[in-house]
Amino acid sequence: MPFQPNQDDVKAINTIRTLALDTVNKANSGHPGAPMGMAPAAHVLFSRFFQCNPQDPKWVNRDRFVLSNGHACALQYTLLHLLGYKVSIDDLKQFRQLDSITPGHPELGVTEGVEVTTGPLGQGFANAVGLAIAQAHLGATFNKDNFSLFDNYTYMFTGDGCLMEGVASEAASLAGHLQLGNLIAVYDDNQISIDGSTSIAFTEDVGKRFEAYDWQVLTVEDGNDDLEGIYKAIEAARAEKNKPTLIRLKTVIGFGSRDQGTHGVHGNPLKADDTVEIKKKFGFNPEEFFVVPDETKKIYADVAKRGAEAEKKWQQAFDEYKAKYADEAADIERRIAGKLPQGWEKALPEFKPTDDAVASRKLSEVLLAKLSTVIPELVSGSADLTPSNLTRWKNAVDFQPKANGLGDYTGRYIRYGVREHGMGAIANGIAAYGANLMIPAIGTFLNFVSYAAGAVRLSALSHQRVIWVATHDSIGLGEDGPTHQPVETVAHFRALPNCNVWRPADGNETSAAYYMALTSTHTPSILALTRQNLPQLEGSSIEKANKGGYTLVEVDGKPDVTFVATGSEVAIAVEAAELLSKQGVKARVASLPCWEVFRAQDSQYKLSVLPDGAPIVSVEAYTTMGWAEFSHAHCGIDTFGASAPAKQVYAKFGLTGEAVAKRAEKAISYFRDLGHPVYSPLSHQLAL
Amino acid sequence: MPFQPNQDDVKAINTIRTLALDTVNKANSGHPGAPMGMAPAAHVLFSRFFQCNPQDPKWVNRDRFVLSNGHACALQYTLLHLLGYKVSIDDLKQFRQLDSITPGHPELGVTEGVEVTTGPLGQGFANAVGLAIAQAHLGATFNKDNFSLFDNYTYMFTGDGCLMEGVASEAASLAGHLQLGNLIAVYDDNQISIDGSTSIAFTEDVGKRFEAYDWQVLTVEDGNDDLEGIYKAIEAARAEKNKPTLIRLKTVIGFGSRDQGTHGVHGNPLKADDTVEIKKKFGFNPEEFFVVPDETKKIYADVAKRGAEAEKKWQQAFDEYKAKYADEAADIERRIAGKLPQGWEKALPEFKPTDDAVASRKLSEVLLAKLSTVIPELVSGSADLTPSNLTRWKNAVDFQPKANGLGDYTGRYIRYGVREHGMGAIANGIAAYGANLMIPAIGTFLNFVSYAAGAVRLSALSHQRVIWVATHDSIGLGEDGPTHQPVETVAHFRALPNCNVWRPADGNETSAAYYMALTSTHTPSILALTRQNLPQLEGSSIEKANKGGYTLVEVDGKPDVTFVATGSEVAIAVEAAELLSKQGVKARVASLPCWEVFRAQDSQYKLSVLPDGAPIVSVEAYTTMGWAEFSHAHCGIDTFGASAPAKQVYAKFGLTGEAVAKRAEKAISYFRDLGHPVYSPLSHQLAL
C-alpha cells in the first residue's frame, strides 16, 4: 500500500513529543531529547507496521520492540499508553517515582509491553539480535507450508551511544553473519552524545561498518519530517530477507526545542518557557498537560485493533495447525506455558563414589547431551571455546543460515565467536522471547564471564533464565596462568542479586546445578566447572545439593572442626578431614555449591550444616572475600594465580589436604585457648 | 633501503618456528600454531625495523611491541631470547612452569621486554592504542625543532579472536578518530579460531570495517613466504602519518605442520612425529632442541646493536635538549624516574566540618583541577560522561588530532566516547608507557566500570596505576534507577587482588583517596563518588583516611555498639549514633573508605578501629557480601535499587539514621542476652 502521511500523523507525532515532554517535566528528571527526535520514526513504525495486541501483551508472534537507547523511555511509555497497554496517563505522571511502573529506564517485568531491560548502552542492541535469533529458530522449527506461526519482526531503536559500545559491535557482526533478515534497527543519527557533538570521539563511517558486517544500510536524510522516507526505509528493511537492516535516520535531538541539536536537551527537563514555546509551535495549549487528541487516539486504537485481529487469525491458524501437527502444537503450547517436558529430570545422571573421577566440564557435557534430547528448547553455544567448554552435543546442528552450508536455523548450537559480552546480551534476548520458548546455555571460561558482566547484571535484574557454562573455573586450569585463572569472579557474581553461582564438587552436584538452573525460571545461573578431574564424593546426592549446601561428612559426637568448601576444593577438605581423623580430630565437611540457594534455606537447616560449637574453616581456590559469612578461617588465594601444572599451583597456595588440616589445627587450638563458646558466623547474622 | 631477504632470513624464521615448537613441546602445553604462522612477520619486523635496546629494556623511546594474541607468547619469548633480553634458553625450557619468567601468557613485570599483559583477547589491541596515545602526547608535549625525543612506533600483533572482541572494536574506532599514525597492527588472518574455520562465526569484511574506522588497511596475500611484501607493508604503514594501519597478513596457522591450517595446531603441542618432520623440512636436526644457528644469532645481535646505538644517539640528543630546554628535560627525567613533582600533595584541599556539603564527584572535580596544575603527567578523560563525572578541568585541552580543530596531541583530556571497556584497556596502555610518563584518570558511572571488568583485572594483575573516577556510585543517583545503580560493583572489585576501591565520605576522605591513588604506583584505584551532596564530617582528616579506615566518632567509656560505614553512608551512621546517644546508648563510628588499605594496617590498629566488646553494625548502600569480615549485622541492599528521588530510595531500603539505629538496638540486645564476650569478627580472623 502506498503511504500517505496526513495531518493526523503530524498531530500524532507532536502528541508523542508533548506527552514525552510532559512526562519528563512532571518528574523533573529524564531525557526529553531523543523522544522528541525519534517521534516521527516511532509513529510511522507503530502506526503502519507494528503488530502487537495490547490486550494480550505476551502473544507469542507479536513484533518485538527494543529501545536500546533506553534513556529515551519517555518515548516508549508514551507509545505503550497510546497503544492501550496498561500504562495510564497517571502512570506517565509517576515517571521515575518510587514503585511506579514507569521507572527511569525500561525494565522487563515492570511495565507491560517492555520486552527487555535497557539503558546500559549497547545491551538492547544485542538483546534484539537474540530476539531475532529466537524468531528465526522457532520459525524454522515449527513453521510448515501455509503455517507461518513464527514470523514476527524485531525492531530496535538505537543511538550513537549504543553503536560506540563493543557489545553492540559484537552482536552486529554476528547478526550479519547469521543473515537475520527479521531484524531492523533504526539508528537515531542525531550527532549528539553527552559530551557534545559526536565529532569529538565518534567519526567513523557507521554505515560502512555495518556494510562490512553484511547488513543492509539505508539512510533517511530527514528523519524529522520525511515520513514517507521513513516508511519506505522500513518497507525496504522488511523486504530484505537475508540481511539485517540498519536505517540511519538523521534527526535533530530535542526537535522543536530552542536548544534542539545540542546535548543540552539530552538528559535534563527543558526549561518552562521553552516547553511553552514548543507546545505552541506544535499546536498544543501550553497550559494543558498530557493531552491526547482524539485523532491520535483513533490512530492508535486502530493499531490495537489491527493487532487483535492479527492475533485472532494467528489463533485460528494455530488451531488448524494443531489438528495437523499435534506433536509440534503440543510442544509449542507447553513452551508458551513455561513448562519443562514431563519427566525431563530423569535425564539427570546420579553417581556413586565408585564411579570414575571426571572433570565437571565433562560431566556438563554428558548432561547437556542428555538434556538436549528431552528439552528441545535448550539451545547451547560457546564464545569460540567449544572444544574446551564441551557445550556441544554430538550430532548437534549449528544455528546457521542455510546459505552458508554449515547448518540451518533449526540448529540448537550457536557459534557466538569470541564475543562474550555479545553472547551474554544475545542470550538475554533469546530468553526474552518468552516463557520456555528457548532456554539459552552459553559457554566460555569462567574468567571471561567478566567480559560480559554488563549482560549478566541485566539477566539478573530482568529475571532471565540464562545458563552460563563457565569452565576452567580456577587455578586448576594450570598452565594458562593468572590471566586466565579466575580468583575474584565468583565473589563478583555472588554479590550480584538474583544470580545463582554454582560450583559443583562432583557428578551429583553437577546434576543438581543443572536441575536448579533449569527450574529457576527467573534467575540466571553461572555453573563454574573444572578443567581437572574430580572424584565422586561419598555422601553427595542431587537432592542434598539442590539445597545449595549440605553436610557431606558427619562425625560421631562433638566435632572439633567443620570444613566448608565448594567445587574442586571439597575433595581437598575431605582429604584434610581424613588426615585429622587419623590424629583423633573429628572434622565435619560441608559442601556449599551455591551460596544463594543455601541462603534461601531455613535457619535451622543452615545452622545444622554450619553449626555452633566448633571452628569453621573454608576452602576455596579464590580470594576469600565473602567467606566470613560462613567461616572463621579461610583457606584461599588472596592474590592472582600462577602459570604451572595445576597440582603445583594448588600446592603453592597451600590448597592441599595437609596444609588445610594444619590450618584447622590452628583454629581448633585458638578457640580452645579462648575458652568461650564458638559461634557459627551464621548464628549471629541469622539472629540479626 | 631496498629489502633483500636472503637465506639467513629464512633460516632465522625457521629458527623462531622451531624454538617456539621446542618451547611448547617441552612444557607439553601451549600454543604452537600462531608462532609458526607469524614467524615471518615477526622476523621482518624485528630484524629490519624494530628499535629497542635489550641492555636497557626501559629506554623510553623504544618501539613498543604488543602481542595481543598473547597465547602466541612462545613467539614473543623466543624473540626476546634472540634479541638478548634476559630470557635464556633455560627460561624457554621453563615455559609455563612454576615461578618461571615465561608464564602461559605474557605478563608485564614478569618478563623483561614484555610491555603489557595479554592473553585475554582484545586487551592488547586496546593497550597498543594507549601506548600510541602516550607517544603522540609526549611527542607533542616535549619534542622541539630538531629534537624528536618521543617518536617511537607501537607495533601490535593481533588475531581473529582479538578482532571479534568488542574491546578491540571500541579501541579501533577511537584510534581511527585520533589519527594515530604511529600505530601499526599486524593481523594474523589465518582463518582459524578455536571452534574451527572463521567461516562459522566471523565472516565480516574486516578490512572494510577498519577502513570505516578510518584506518589504512594493507594486505599481504602470502604472509608465509612473501617477506618483501611484509617489509613493504610495514614500510607503508610507517609512512602513513595520519592513520593507524592494519596489515592484513594472510598466514597458515601452524605453518609446516602436517595439520597446518587447522585448529588442531592452535592450542596443543604437536605430535612427536609431526615435530620431527617439521624440523627436517626446515633443515633442523630433529634430535636437537632449542637450536639457534650462528647466522640467526648474528642477525639479532645486529638488531640489538642497532638499538643500543639508537639509544646512545637519543641520549646525546637528550643531553643537548637538556642544555636548551632545562625545564622540559627536568620534567622528562622526573617522569622517567617515576617521581611525582615535589610538594604536589599541597594541592590536596582540607576541609572543616563547617564547610559546605558537596557531592564527592564535585570534590573530585576540584581536586582534578588543582592536581592538573601540579602534576603535568595526569591525563584525564571520560567515556562520554564528562558533565556527569566532572573529570574535565576548566581550560583543559582535548587530546585530538590537530586536523579536526578540536584540540591537539598536547591535550590532557581524552574523549573516549561511550567505550568503557576500550577506555579501561587504553588506560592500561597509557600507563604501560612507563613510570610517571603519564598517569591516566578515567571517568564513567561506577555501574559501568563493570563493562570494563576485563581491563580492570589486567590493571591489577599488571600493577598499573590507573585511576577510575567512578561517579554516581549508588542508589543515591536516584531516578535513573536500578539499571544504573551499582549494588554489586564495589564487592566485585574488592574481591580483585591489588585493586584499591575508595569510597570517600567527605572532602578530606576524597583528598585521601586521590593521595593514595596517585602514590600507589603499582595498584589501580577505583574512586566511587557520589552524585548527591555529602556533609563535611567532624573527625575526618586526610591523614586518618590514608589508613583506609579509622575511628571517626569515639565515645567515653565502654561503647555499646560500633557502626562501620563507607562513603555516603558514613553520615547516616553518624546520625544513627547521635540518635542513640540521646537514649544514652554509646555508639562509636568507624569510617572504612578503602578496605584494601585498611587491611594492610597492623592488627593492633585495625582492632582499635573495630574492637572487641560491642557489636559492630555496617552501613553501606550495597549488597552486604563481604561485610561479615568486619561486622556482625549489616545494613545494606541485598537486591537491586529503585528508580525514584534519592532520599526516597534510601528510605525504602532502610538506610536512614533511624532505621540504622533500630538495627543497632537489636544487635545490642541480642549480644547482651547471649551473655558471652563479643568478639570483633576481625579478632578471630586476624588470629587465624
TrEMBL record, chains A, B:
Q: Which PROSITE patterns match?
A: TRANSKETOLASE_1 (PS00801), TRANSKETOLASE_2 (PS00802)
| This protein's UniProt keywords | Calcium, Magnesium, Metal-binding, Thiamine pyrophosphate, Transferase
Q: Name the residues annotated as site: Important for catalytic activity.
A: H31, H266
Positions of substrate binding: H31, H266, R361, S388, H472, D480, H484, R531
Query: SUPFAM superfamilies attached here?
Result: Thiamin diphosphate-binding fold (THDP-binding), TK C-terminal domain-like
Q: Where does thiamine diphosphate bind?
A: H71, G119, P120, L121, G161, N190, H266, F448
| GO molecular function (one) | metal ion binding
Please name the GO terms of the biological process aspect recorded for this protein, alphabetically: pentose-phosphate shunt
Cofactor(s) named in the record: Mg(2+); Ca(2+); Mn(2+); Co(2+)
Q: What is its EC number?
A: 2.2.1.1
GO cellular component, as recorded = cytosol; nucleus
Q: Which reaction does it catalyse?
A: D-sedoheptulose 7-phosphate + D-glyceraldehyde 3-phosphate = aldehydo-D-ribose 5-phosphate + D-xylulose 5-phosphate
Residue limits of the Transketolase-like pyrimidine-binding domain? Answer: 358-536
Q: Which domain of life is it from?
A: Eukaryota
Can you quote the record's cofactor note? Binds 1 Mg(2+) ion per subunit. Can also utilize other divalent metal cations, such as Ca(2+), Mn(2+) and Co(2+).
Pfam entry (one): Transket_pyr
Q: Which residues bind Mg(2+)?
A: D160, N190, I192
Catalytic site residues? E420
- What's the family? Belongs to the transketolase family.
Which function does this protein serve? Catalyzes the transfer of a two-carbon ketol group from a ketose donor to an aldose acceptor, via a covalent intermediate with the cofactor thiamine pyrophosphate.
Q: Subunit notes for this chain?
A: Homodimer.
PANTHER family per record: TRANSKETOLASE, TRANSKETOLASE 1-RELATED
Name of the molecule in the record:
Transketolase
